[in-house]
Amino acid sequence: xxxxxxxxxxxxxxxxxxxxxxxxxxxxxxxxxxxxxxxxxxxxxxxxxxxxxxxxxxxxxxxxxxxxxxxxxxxxxxxxxxxxxxxxxxxxxxxxxxxxxxxxxxxxxxxxxxxxxxxxxxxxxxxxxxxxxxxxxxxxxxxxxxxxxxxxxxxxxxxxxxxxxxxxxxxxxxxxxxxxxxxxxxxxxxxxxxxxxxxxxxxxxxxxxxxxxxxxxxxxxxxxxxxxxxxxxxxxxxxxxxxxxxxxxxxxxxxxxxxxxxxxxxxxxxxxxxxxxxxxxxxxxxxxxxxxxxxxxxxxxxxxxxxxxxxxxxxxxxxxxxxxxxxxxxxxxxxxxxxxxxxxxxxxxxxxxxxxxxxxxxxxxxxxxxxxxxxxxxxxxxxxxxxxxxxxxxxxxxxxxxxxxxxxxxxxxxxxxxxxxxxxxxxxxxxxxxx
Length: 435
What we know:
Layout: E1 4-8, H1 12-24, E2 28-32, H2 35-41, E3 49-53, H3 61-71, E4 76-81, H4 86-95, E5 99-102, H5 107-138, H6 149-161, E6 168-172, H7 178-188, E7 196-200, H8 206-214, H9 217-220, H10 231-235, E8 239-243, H11 250-260, E9 267-272, H12 276-281, H13 287-293, E10 297-300, H14 310-325, H15 334-342, H16 348-362, H17 382-400, H18 405-412, H19 416-425
Parallel strand pairs: 1-2, 1-3, 3-4, 4-5, 6-9, 6-10, 7-8, 8-9
């Protein structure tokens, strides 16, 4: 992905000329006629280079430089200065600018500065990413795994947002990690000592959802509810996660929109599987609530768009499951990897995790149905989970003892008849484990 180059200059001819030059050379440019607009769009996740004129109305380049470095002191900002105005350029460098260009300058000079500035900024972002990975891997709570560019960018944005207090909208298909991200933002952010309260909007009947959110029936339909005995009250100053917010009625959506205008309330993180822009246009979703939530929107890519992560994720889930149950993890051979990459994964990461857990606990022969589709279910019953664990323990013991039933019987403390009955129940044949 080519980093974006911002051009800030009040003269249109200069903006157009620089944009055309950069576009021809393969850069993606974005032009601003004033520094104030650029500053409003700037945050610490910006990966490119900023080229700014010094002499501009409203906000001059030196003021912009100071304010931009407050956003991120390691930005690559190149200042444009007039002929002979070297003292101002030197002052800008001392203040934190990456470099300066004295007008007029050649295309080669411009490109050299841009490339060096881009390399420097990329190194800064890569170092931050490594630091974030170390922090998140060693910290308690959920982790956002993957090496696809879209996931790296998502992880950077999530890490940045964890210390922000605004409401946000998480958009993506089922099983792409929206709730995982919501919990990470809460657990690693400034509200980590406050409650995290989740509500699955699709699972609560429409007649009860207002009371669930806002309290008693009287309060739920009052003009100014007190929210006593409600999800809002339970979340306090923490985080209220609304999974499937599109399932709420318009009346409830409007009450939530009113809530977002209040100061004493939890932060709202909402998730959706839909593009709510269309829902707003069609009158199916509150424009007021959408405006409040969509100011910060995170898009979660489906697994089919990040296939380079499939094998890595599966290996992680296999190791984690095997470690949790104290059994040896199965090995991913080339044929397994090829099958993983061919599968459509309509349930995304959640389906892949369920697949890996079944593989560890039930063995390879129970992974797919006759038509090649996985047997993924949202939730197993307690009895089904116990059976999976029992089979996994038997499978592991047979594997380690090369099918020697006497040794398996001694290790597991089972009577001979009991062991034979369990092997029959789980379709395990000792001959398949002989060395």
